[in-house]
Amino acid sequence: MIRKAKEEDFELILEVELESGHPLNKKFKVTKESITEWLGPTFKDNINDFYVFEEEQKMLGFISLKKIFSTHKSCEGNYLAVRESFHKKGIGKKLIRFVEEKANSSGFERIFAYTGEDNLRAQKFYEKIGYLKIN
């Protein structure tokens, strides 16, 4: 089930991010405190809507939809994370498709997703589900 995140979900969102296997988390030895520093303000702003994926009352992934973007009628699907032990089970794709539907129903015509140059796994994931590489 995918639902809009609530304030009390933030601690579990941090846990999911830490368990996501994101290459930068490993490279920079990311901690719960450092994730809180950069994700906390975004979670509380009015620019991003966060959504969580739950199964059997356990949060397995999350994504946010950034509604203010520099390109006309465009938005960004960002902060996609799924617990590494649940990769390749379709959760990331479900989260992306959910955000795409939200964006479409809100009048956005395009959705962008940024990945780091060294995050090849994410690049392959986005290409596999139909996203075009533009840079």
Describe the overall structure.
- The protein is α+β, with helices and mostly antiparallel strands.
- Helices cover 38% and strands 24% of the residues.
- The protein is built from five helices and five strands.
- β2 (48-55) and β3 (58-66) form a beta hairpin.
- The radius of gyration is 14 Å and the shape is globular.
- The mean pLDDT is 94.
- The string of secondary-structure elements, in order, is EHHHEEEHEH
β-strand number? 5
| Major sheet: arrangement of strands | 1-2-3-4-5
Q: Beta-strand level of the residues, as a percent range?
A: 15-25%
Helical fraction equals: 25-40%
Structural class: alpha+beta
- Kindly report the oligomeric state of this protein: single chain
Ranges where pLDDT stays below 50 over 5 or more residues in a row are none
> Given the structure, what is the number of helices?
5
Mean pLDDT: 94
Question: What's the end-to-end separation, in Å?
Answer: 33 Å
